[in-house]
Amino acid sequence: MEQKTGKSTSLPGECDVCLESCNVDIVNGNLKLILGLIWSLIVRYQIGRSKFPPRKLMLAWLQAVLPECKVSNLTTDWNSGVLLSALVDYCRPGLFPHWRKLELP
């Protein structure tokens, strides 16, 4: 079921990102598009102002907030779902309290 929002979405500030063509996909829950948009916002407004590469900053932050998980690779470490579950529980404590019982590959 497609839902049209009828609105154009733009981000405030120096960078106006028009999401007109993506509204339907976002409303319908296109996970890849939503996560890509979130990453773009993080890079643009948080990480983009740093002198360090975004991937290294993200990796350092994940290692700091998830010390039990031993994050070392932003691609393959996520395959099992354990890190995502741990991150969800970190961001919203109690949402996934049993992530430690998940099996590591």
Topology (elements, then pairings):
Layout: H1 23-27, H2 31-45, H3 54-65, H4 82-91
GO molecular function: actin filament binding
Organism: Acanthoscelides obtectus (Bean weevil)
Protein name: Calponin-homology (CH) domain-containing protein
Sum up the structure in keywords:
Actin-binding Protein, T-fimbrin, domain 1, 2 domains, globular
CATH architecture heading of the largest domain: Orthogonal Bundle
The number of helical runs is 4
CATH topology of the largest domain: Actin-binding Protein, T-fimbrin, domain 1
Secondary-structure class: mainly alpha
Give me the CATH superfamily of the largest domain.
Calponin-like domain
What value does the average pLDDT take?
A: 74
The percent of residues in helical segments reads 40-55%
Overall CATH class of the largest domain: Mainly Alpha
* Beta strand %: under 5%
Uncertain ranges: 1-18
The global form is globular
Domain Calponin-homology (CH): 52-105
Organism: Acanthoscelides obtectus
GO molecular function: actin filament binding
Protein name: Calponin-homology (CH) domain-containing protein
Describe what this molecule looks like in 3D.
The structure is a single chain. The protein has 105 residues and is mostly helical. It folds into 2 domains: 45 residues, no CATH class; 49 residues, Calponin-like domain (Actin-binding Protein, T-fimbrin, domain 1, Orthogonal Bundle). The longest helix is centred in the middle third of the chain and has 15 residues.
In short:
With 105 residues, this protein is mainly alpha-helical.
